[in-house]
Design goal:
With 113 residues, this protein is of the alpha+beta class. It has helices at 15-29, 77-90, and strands at 6-11, 43-48, 69-75, 92-100, 105-112. Helix 1 crosses helix 2 (77-90).
């Protein structure tokens, strides 16, 4: 799957928490095309369009979160599954639900420190 497209929306926490979440996903999807940067934003977005090192990637120590964050991953079903798997391996996570469309899927996770 070379045309992976994944959008990650991160709410709660601070910009460092958002960057921690993105770092966890970079081993699976490669470097983010768009990274969270706004210091005072309440919602931060990152996008990925590439491939990383494979399904086993993303298990490196990402560091702790300072506060609970809500993460929504949206994209192709396989990309959403891989992102969800990576985040649940990297953080204490609770599945908050999913929605499926014709060609995209969305999943929301609550990540806790």
């Amino acid at each position: 799957m070379s045309d992976t497209q994944l959008t990650v929306t991160i709410g709660g926490g601070d910009v460092d928490d958002a960057r921690t979440v993105v770092r966890a996903l970079e081993g699976t999807f490669g470097a983010a095309d768009q990274r969270p940067s706004a210091e005072h934003a309440t919602i931060r977005v990152a996008t990925f369009t590439g491939e990383g090192q494979g399904a086993a990637a993303g298990t490196a120590d990402t560091g702790p979160l300072s506060a609970p964050v809500t993460v929504t991953v949206q994209g192709a079903p396989e990309a959403v599954r891989r992102a969800s798997d990576t985040l649940t391996r990297s953080f204490t996570a609770r599945d908050e639900g999913a929605a499926s469309g014709d060609q995209e899927q969305e999943r929301q996770l609550l990540l806790e420190p």
